[in-house]
Amino acid sequence: MGRAAEMLGTTPEFLRSLDRTKVITPLRSSGGHRRYSRYQLRIASRVRELVDSGTSLDAACRIIILEDQLEEAQRVNAEMRADHDL
Q: Given its phi and psi angles, is residue 53 left (phi above 0), alpha (psi -120 to 50 degrees) or beta?
């Protein structure tokens, strides 16, 4: 967790808060240490950007979830259009 926080320029407590809010749920090592994927680090970085620009943590987490849902909907839409064009 310390290394991930260092990479993002934040604190371990900030990453714990994202875990508590269920924005990211890192895997755990056998020793109980949090293990973050690159995708989770990108999400954490985006939340940090929003918080740094004055958005509350709760609002930033909701924005990230909505951005994720929008991206997935756009991907599904593109796939459906490609299937229709066949």
A: alpha
Instruction: Please report which confidence band the pLDDT of residue 86 belongs to, taking 50, 70 and 90 as the band edges.
Output: low
7 within 8 A of 40, measured Cβ to Cβ: no
pTM for this prediction? 0.77
CA 58 to chain centre: 13
**N- to C-terminal Cα separation, the chain:** 47
Answer left, alpha or beta for residue 38, where phi above 0 means left and psi between -120 and 50 means alpha.
alpha
The Cα 26–Cα 31 span in angstroms is 14
The whole-angstrom separation of Cα 71 and Cα 64 is 10
Closest CA to 3 of 32, 39, 41: 41
